[in-house]
Amino acid sequence: MFTTVCSISMFVFLSSFSQCTDKSSLQDEAPVAFGDVYYQYRAQAVRDLESSFTLVIPIKEDLPSNITLDSVYFKGKSAKLQITTNKDKVYFAKFITKPAHNEDIILSSDMADERKNKLPEPPVKMPFELEPNECIISYTQDGITKYFKIKGITQRRLKDVPMSSKNKP
Q: Distance of CA 85 to CAs 82, 91, 94, Å?
């Protein structure tokens, strides 16, 4: 009985200590100066296409050589950050809200057939609590993973592009 109580106490103590490490790596100061961060939903013209939105993170200066931006947590999802190929210093992350098409589900009286069904992906466990207009940037600095919270993220509409007609002069 004493061993069980000690084991449970040790587990609770260690688990509470390990949760503090995530919060302690949240930095107060940004690793680089960020511009106006925003997100845009992708226009979906066809029902079977995926639904997604893109988070755009412009930076105002070059990143120091010892810092690498890695990923972002936003709206209950996480994604890897990518950098644009043009001269602008803009990072972005694409979040898929609905896959392009649903695969057929095999329903059978034989369990071996049903094992071929693809399992749904479990939701991402968010290490931080965020407001709808906040994101967490994960980055490495000198090999150490750190996090920074960006607040005040806005949604921008996609520019309306008129459809052109081939019959017009």
A: 9, 10, 15
